[in-house]
């Protein structure tokens, strides 16, 4: 198997936070990690150079790589382009072309950050949830889609479609994760209204026969959105479709204080994946050296765990993050109370290296 890691810094704060992750990879290499870094362009960065958000060269390099580390894509500069040529399309196409059907988002609250959340400490302390989101099906990819004009009145339309194989594949991953945790899985859908959700629920129930040790429950998405802020600790593992997962994982992110803390992994059947922060390119703070690099650094830890099977180095990174938070050093988004010192993106990256 190749030991190439493809680095896609992308747009906005992407390159800044990626620099901090690369510093850690360099130290890991000195400690024996055998990887070769390759670099390519995606998103607005690729549009500016090649005129397209996902050049063929990037797709080929991604196919050859063992894992991909991505910053973020997008920004106002490219919002004027038609919807099919915007930076975000490049990322969607890359996920699809690598068959990355499974998105894993750990929603973990570092105890040092309890005060950074807008929720009461007793509601969120000890929070540790995993959201498993189907990533290459549903309304984001369904055909037909487009715009139409009926007698002078414009309309836009999309198609939400899932087949049972897609649902079974993501369901299986979620059951496997649940069986190795608290053996509780909550499937989130809208089965009281949508046919795709009715099929989703049926397939999840059929899988439950194979995983008799796992307690499967179901919740409608509207209720789940409410329960996540009312009593988030009732959840352990959540499985849901592409659009519902997109929305509730951002909601869940805020339980942990900042979206700047949350990593994610998007995987295919062979464990190959794109590892990236849950947040976007944050154009409002790009270039200011104030972005939180921890979601990017924790995405690197996920890459070491899921694609390179190096749990030891992954744990060292996670412990280093915890130590730096213990030292009360923070970027502004997780500043908390007067005891903390606000430092820059680069300084926080250097502190992680010191704690590593
Ligand atoms: P965003 O996640 O970029 O930003 C939302 C808010 O969170 C902003 O106030 C931002 O400053 C803050 N934030 C995000 N990451 C942070 C960090 N690491 N440290 C501190 N603060 C942080 O979402 P948005 O503003 O809706 O989108 C901006 C652009 O990113 C858009 O073009 C969007 O399409 C794109 N986007 C890309 C991805 C991706 O690359 N996977 C995901 C979501 C959005």
From TrEMBL:
Q: Which cofactor does it need?
A: Mn(2+); Mg(2+)
Keyword Oxidoreductase appears in the UniProt entry: yes
Respond yes or no to whether keyword NADP is given for this record.
no
Binding, Mg(2+): 222, 246, 250
Q: Which GO terms describe its molecular function?
A: 3-isopropylmalate dehydrogenase activity; magnesium ion binding; NAD binding
Q: What is its main location?
A: cytoplasm
Tell me how the cofactor is bound.
Answer: Binds 1 Mg(2+) or Mn(2+) ion per subunit.
* Sorted UniProt keywords: Amino-acid biosynthesis, Branched-chain amino acid biosynthesis, Cytoplasm, Leucine biosynthesis, Magnesium, Manganese, Metal-binding, NAD, Oxidoreductase
Q: What's the Enzyme Commission number for this chain?
A: 1.1.1.85
* Residues annotated for NAD(+) binding in this entry: 75-88, 280-292
Name of the molecule in the record: 3-isopropylmalate dehydrogenase
Q: Which organism is it from?
A: Candidatus Johnevansia muelleri
The opening ranks of the lineage are: Bacteria, Pseudomonadati, Pseudomonadota, Gammaproteobacteria, Candidatus Johnevansiales
- The gene name reads leuB
């Amino acid at each position: 198997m190749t030991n190439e890691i493809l680095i896609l810094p992308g747009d906005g704060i992407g390159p800044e936070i990626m620099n901090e992750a690369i510093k850690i990879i360099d130290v890991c290499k000195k400690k024996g990690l055998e990887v070769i870094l390759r670099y390519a362009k995606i998103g607005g960065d690729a549009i500016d150079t090649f005129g397209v958000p996902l050049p063929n060269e990037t797709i080929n390099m991604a196919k050859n790589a063992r894992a991909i580390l991505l910053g973020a894509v997008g920004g106002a500069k490219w919002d004027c382009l038609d919807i099919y040529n915007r930076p975000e399309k490049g990322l969607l196409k890359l996920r699809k072309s690598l068959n990355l059907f499974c998105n894993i988002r750990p929603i973990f609250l570092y105890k040092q950050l309890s005060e950074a959340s807008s929720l009461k400490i007793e509601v969120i302390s000890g929070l540790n949830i995993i959201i498993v989101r189907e990533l290459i099906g549903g309304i984001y990819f369904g055909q037909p889609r487009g715009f139409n004009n009926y007698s002078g009145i414009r309309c836009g339309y999309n198609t939400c479609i899932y087949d049972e194989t897609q649902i079974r594949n993501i369901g299986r991953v979620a059951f496997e994760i649940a069986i190795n945790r608290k053996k509780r899985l909550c499937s989130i859908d809208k089965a009281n209204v949508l046919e795709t959700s009715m099929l989703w629920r049926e397939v999840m129930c059929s899988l439950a026969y194979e995983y008799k040790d796992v307690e499967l429950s179901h919740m409608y998405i509207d209720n789940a959105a409410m329960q996540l802020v009312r009593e988030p600790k009732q959840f352990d593992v959540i499985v849901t479709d592409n659009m519902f997962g997109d929305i509730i994982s951002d909601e869940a992110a805020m339980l942990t204080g900042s979206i700047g803390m949350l990593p994610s992994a998007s995987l295919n059947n062979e464990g190959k994946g794109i590892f990236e922060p849950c947040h976007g390119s944050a154009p409002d703070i790009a270039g200011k050296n104030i972005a939180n690099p921890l979601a990017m650094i924790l995405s690197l830890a996920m890459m070491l765990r899921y694609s390179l099977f190096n749990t030891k180095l992954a744990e060292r990174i996670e412990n280093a993050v915890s130590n730096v938070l213990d030292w009360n050093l923070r970027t502004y988004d997780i500043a908390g109370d007067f005891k903390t010192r606000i430092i820059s993106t680069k300084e926080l990256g250097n502190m992680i290296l010191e704690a590593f």
